[in-house]
Amino acid sequence: MHRRTFLQLATGIGAAAVANPAALRAQAAWPDRPVKIIVPFAPGGATDLLARPWADALGKAFGQQFVIENRGGASGLIGAEATFRSAPDGYTFLFSSNSTTVFQPQLRKINYDANGFVLVGRMGDSISGFVVHTKYGFKTIQDLIAYAKANPGKLTFGSSGAGTTTHLRLEALKFKTGIDILHVPYRGGSDALNDLLAGVVDIMNEGSTLPHAKAGKITLLNVNHTERFPPFPDVPTLREAGIDGADVPVWFSLYGPPGTPVDIATKLNAKINELSAMPDMKAKMESASAVPVVQGLADIQKHFDADFKSTGELIKSANIKIE
């Protein structure tokens, strides 16, 4: 939602309150029934693993259930469209990474206006990195790059779908290093992870892989973030590994359908920021391979706009397309 639209909505809400006091009272009582959070991927993937502790925390904070509904398929587009077309009454939200609102709209024709969503809360930045099956014996990202250059097209990369954030991370690495790795899109990250552990695919880059890397089942080669991740203090960032400009930020937000009341969005945003600062929530986010971010509504919109622009530049310069 652009800032201009935000101001228009705010003005409209004020006028509606004067004309319809009952509507204002209904919003003030929000939530007075369960709230649905649509996760546009299958259970067990990175998005789902982060959404569940948030749903639990928000439910306790507001005294109403926040119920997860998984609607996977089409790289997250099915769940995103379902949210977009939901009633803007504050009882349906989308929990997703920037995949469905920043990347997909610039890669393919979609059936919703990504700029029409109401950004409600920044739910955290995903921490992950390129992980590889242990059969290769790679220890660093440079080992992977050297092998890929010597064996073009042999390595396979499993993602949660074409055009998702993890797919873009692969394309950015390929563009910056000149390597050739085969992309294998899945319906969700959990399916790709199962095949990675079984040796069907060789590489992934999703937060859901990190517990398995910690257990030694797969090898984490780098961290995709601005700084190292405490559970893996010896694993460098891409920049530290000498690969600058190849990172693609993955951040999660809660989105409402167009027309979601501003007072509900503001109320939710304040609670999300409050919870993000709590040690218990920080620990739960870390266990889901994410770090908290505290941002107001206007700052989230600025971040969205900047990410949309930089992603568009990457897609154009790297000539990224979905076949």
The end-to-end span amounts to 29 Å
User: Which class of secondary structure composition applies to the elements?
Assistant: alpha/beta
Largest sheet: 6 strands, mixed
CATH architecture label of the largest domain:
3-Layer(aba) Sandwich
Our estimate of the beta-strand percent is: 15-25%
**What strand line-up does the widest sheet have?**
2-1-3-10-4-11
Uncertain ranges: 3-23
Helices and strands, in N-to-C order?
HHEHEHEHEEHEHEHEHEEHHEH
Estimate the global geometry from the Cα principal axes: globular
- By DSSP, the count of extended strands is 11
What would the average pLDDT be, to the nearest integer? 90
CATH class term of the largest domain: Alpha Beta
Features:
globular; 2 domains; 12 helices; alpha/beta; 323 residues; 6-stranded mixed sheet; D-Maltodextrin-Binding Protein, domain 2; disordered N terminus
If you had to describe this structure to a student in words, what would you say it looks like?
By secondary structure, this protein is an alpha/beta fold. The chain folds into two domains: 192 residues, D-Maltodextrin-Binding Protein, domain 2 (3-Layer(aba) Sandwich); 90 residues, D-Maltodextrin-Binding Protein, domain 2. 42% of the residues lie in helices and 15% in strands. The chain has twelve helices and eleven strands. The strands form three sheets. Strands 2-1-3-10-4-11 form a six-stranded mixed β-sheet, with helices on both faces. Strands 8-5-9 form a three-stranded antiparallel β-sheet. A two-stranded parallel sheet has the order 6-7. It starts with a helix and ends in a 6-residue tail after the last helix.
